[in-house]
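Quick one, T. Sequence first:
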Amino acid sequence: MDQNIIDELTPTGVLRAGINMSNFLLVTGKADNGDPTGVSPDMANAIADQLGVPVRYITFPSPGELADAVDQDAWDIGNIGAEPQRAEKIAFTAAYCEIEATYLVPSGSPIETLDDVDKAGNRIAVAGRSAYGLWLERNIKQAVLVRTDSLDASFNAFVDGKLEALAGLRPRLLSDVEKLPGARILEGKFSAVQQAVGTPRKNAAAAAWLKGFVEEAKASGRVASFIEKHKVVGLSVAPPA
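C-alpha cells:
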C-alpha cells in the first residue's frame, strides 16, 4: 500500500466515512453503539480494512449536506450518488451499486409512460438535491418540479397538492403505492442512481486507488455479498466501469 494514499485518506489517523442516512437501501439499521449498518457502511469499513486503519462514520441527514461538507474537511470518503454537480469538488469512483428511479402516478391518471410525464401542466414532486432530483433538474424540460426537503415531504406534497407524478426510487415507491388505492408505478426507469465512493478532488492518488478498489469489490462478489447480507431489495451491483 502506497503511504501517500494512506496519508491522503487518513489525515487524522482514521478513515472518516461520510454516510448518507436518508438512503434506506444503503443504510438499513444501527449497531448497538449507534453506528449505521448496511451496504454503505460495509463498503466504508472494507476500504478502512484495506488501508489498515479504523473507520469512523460521519453521518449526514441528506446527500446534499454530505456533499456540501466536502469544503469543511469533515470526511475523507463520502458514499453518495455520483452526479455532475457534485463532481466539481468530489472525485468519484464508478458506481458500486445502482437503484432504479421512476414515477408514481395517482389513480385515474392519463400518464402511461415515462415520456408522458414531461409535459406542460404536469407537476412532479421530488426530494430536492437527491441524486435523481439532480438528474431531473438537468433533464425535465416542460413539467414543473416541486422540490421538497425529504422523501416523506415529497410524498406528502404529491398527495396534498394532487400533483401529477411523484419521482422516487422504485423500492420506496413500492411502499408508497400501497397507501394510495389505484395509484400506479410506471414501467422502466428515467435514471439509475449511481451509488459511488467519493473523495475530495485534492486526493488524486487516493481517488485513483479507490476506483480500483471499487472495481475489484464488484468483480469479486464483495458488493453482492453486502447486498445479500442486509437483504436489500431494489439494489443491484453496478456493471464494470
